[in-house]
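Please go through this chain and its backbone structure tokens and walk me through the local backbone shapes. Keep your notes short.
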Amino acid sequence: MTAYSKLQLPNNESKLLLHSCCAPCSGDIMERLCVSGIEYTVFFYNPNIHPLREYEIRKNENIRFAEQHNIPFVDGDYDREEWFTRAKGMEHEPERGIRCTMCFDMRFERSALYAHEHGFNVFTSSLGISRWKNMDQINDCGLRAASHYPGINYWTFNWRKDGGSQNMITLSKQEKFYQQEYCGCAYSLRDTNQWRTKNDRQRIKIGVKYYGTE
């Protein structure tokens, strides 16, 4: 493992619920938490991921890494019909726009509910480690979700610190994680393929690209 600074949860809490979007984004975070001796559970709730094959690959990669570290893994519902219902009218919004806010809200609302029902006073997410994401947008959604439950806090820790974003890539190559090539939803897949076609690049092939195996 990489040498990490020891982490401390807010309010000296002893355990954490980690909402994970995928193994590449959560891997470095999971190792940091292990090194810090923090008890945590991975909560995989991502009904935005499309199609089902892509969803299953990302989930199973995350399960594999959690099992390596003996970390409890909770498989949330794949209620994609509800996600598409909420996204109605936002189909052509840009990345980092209001559709993404809706998506983060939906995932964090369920994460906060799970935390409330299962004795976690703190939850956080791996989403913010990616440089492609707007960290303020993610934190706002996390804090909003936590505000619905007394005593529940969203941890706004900057996972990009201490080389987190680079460690994420290094670890992904070491573990040969599946290398997703778009954010996850049907509209990001559509837009990425449109950009690739326009720029004479190969369209995304789901299920074939893994870190360190090119």
